[in-house]
Amino acid sequence: MNNHDERTLLEVNGLTKSYLDFQLRDVNIQVPAGTIMGFLGRNGAGKSTMMKAIMDLIKRDEGDIRVLGMSMPEEEVAVKEQVGYVGDTPLLNNAWTMERTLSFARHFYPNWDQEAVDRNLERFQVPFDKKISELSKGMKVKASLILAMAHQPKLLLLDEPTSGLDPVVRTEVLELLLDFVQDESRGVLFSSHITSDVEKIADWVTVINDGEILFSEDKESLLDRYRRIVIPGNGGGKAVETPLLFNCQSTMGGYVGYTDRFDRFQKVASGKWRSERLTLEELFVLLTGRKGE
Amino acid sequence: MKGYGTIYLARGCSDVLIHISQTSSTPMYEQVLSEIQRLIVMGHMKPDEMLPSIRELSKELMTSGITIRRAYQELERSGFIYTRKGKGSFVSTLSEEKLAKWKLDQVRVPLLESVVQAKKLNLEEEQFQDLIKHIWQETDEH
Q1: Model confidence over B91-108: pLDDT tens digits?
Q2: Predicted local confidence at residue B11, as pLDDT
């Protein structure tokens, strides 16, 4: 393998995992330092499976996983000191208070940052002495995040951290993630099916569909190269034939199609047309919804 | 509490703020770009004044860093700011012509739409100019 690039926090190469009815196929992603990657997929697309495979909570069939250049699972202990993971089922013990949870957990990590923990508890007003079972869903998520960040990891792996939360708590969580990457040396990979959360704060967008990565790309260039193209009137027949357009449809006022190479389309297109940018949500639905049905 | 998507760019100066909307159809980076251009052109940010870091602004505006980076790149390309490696981004000194041109460009696009609309509705050029005069005076009174 080549030397580890200091700027890459997480590298996943050729990750494969087969189940009877589902397959994670040849996953390749990289999370650079100082960035947030949003990992988008529909329910059941393979988001949690990939997250768990990275943490070696499920055994992969093939592939290479490196965190800060260290490989999983061979250097698991060292890797886990650098990673804060919050899975789809919180690992908090419902019968314990946050106080007890934290004083228990701190013994396992040499880099435990009690000051940051206190600051975050204060900021999010997470009750210290109530049992976890008595906390609201939002509080539980915040408590898990505080716990995951307490040992000063370089990388946060968060499985659907914002799903099921009200808009205020969701915003707080997103702010916490933006906070986390402030010093440019840390990074976040968070999965979600809430496209607006990803569109808001992610630098990189990775979309998984049916176990396969459709793309993993910086958000600005992604949203830049896709356009909805509207060709008014009935003179659009010719333009619609170009291989640069897909999902073309006749509408009352003309033709509508999509392009994923807008710069190219601009150069070759003639006649009357106009373009519209897509939101990440529109793009996501276009690429993962109802294909072939 | 800080307003959503609003940031006081120059500290201690309450009318210097960026306002962006997450729901606008204008791309985020363009909103950030034109807001900072506005602050520079209107003299709210002085030549050689340092801009916030990309990460700082990204956090304040609740926007991804890559969006802010893109806005800063465009600002640099269009000569509004300059960047010193390892130090940060600073406001450039702009010529009077450039300032005047930018201001006119801001009005040109919406005006163009209005002119096209006016022609579609068969209005006379004189009627259109009267309308502008009227609106100009009307808004003066407030």
Answers
A1: 999 999 999 999 999 899
A2: 43
Q: Rounded distance, CA B69 to CA B129, Å?
A: 41
- pLDDT at position A4 is 61
Q: What is the DSSP string of chain A?
A: -PPPPTTEEEEEEEEEEE-SS-EEEEEEEEEETT-EEEEE--TTSSHHHHHHHHTTSS--SEEEEEETTEEETTTHHHHHHHEEEE-SS----TTSBHHHHHHHHGGG-TT--HHHHHHHHHHHT--SSSBGGGS-HHHHHHHHHHHHHTT--SEEEEESTTTT--HHHHHHHHHHHHHHTTTSS-EEEEEES-HHHHHHH-SEEEEEETTEEEEEEEHHHHHHH-EEEEEETTTTHHHHTSTT-EEEEEETTEEEEEES-HHHHHHH--SS-EEE---HHHHHHHHHSSTT-
Nearest CA in chain B to A171: B62
The segments of chain A whose pLDDT lies below 70 read 1-6, 90, 234-241, 290-293
Interfacial residues of A (vs B; Cβ cutoff 8 Å): 34-36, 171, 174-175, 178-179, 181-184, 196, 200-204, 218-220, 223, 277
The structure tokens listed for A180 are: 């986390």
Residues in chain A: 293
pTM for the whole thing? 0.85
pLDDT at A65: 94
pLDDT of A50 reads 92
Query: Rounded to the nearest 5°, which phi and psi values hold at A41?
Result: -170, 155
Query: Is A171 within 8 Å of B62 when comparing Cβ atoms?
Result: yes
pLDDT of residue A1: 45
Nearest CB to A184; choose among B22, B55, B63: B55
B133, B139, B140, B142 alpha-carbon torsion, rounded to 10°: 160
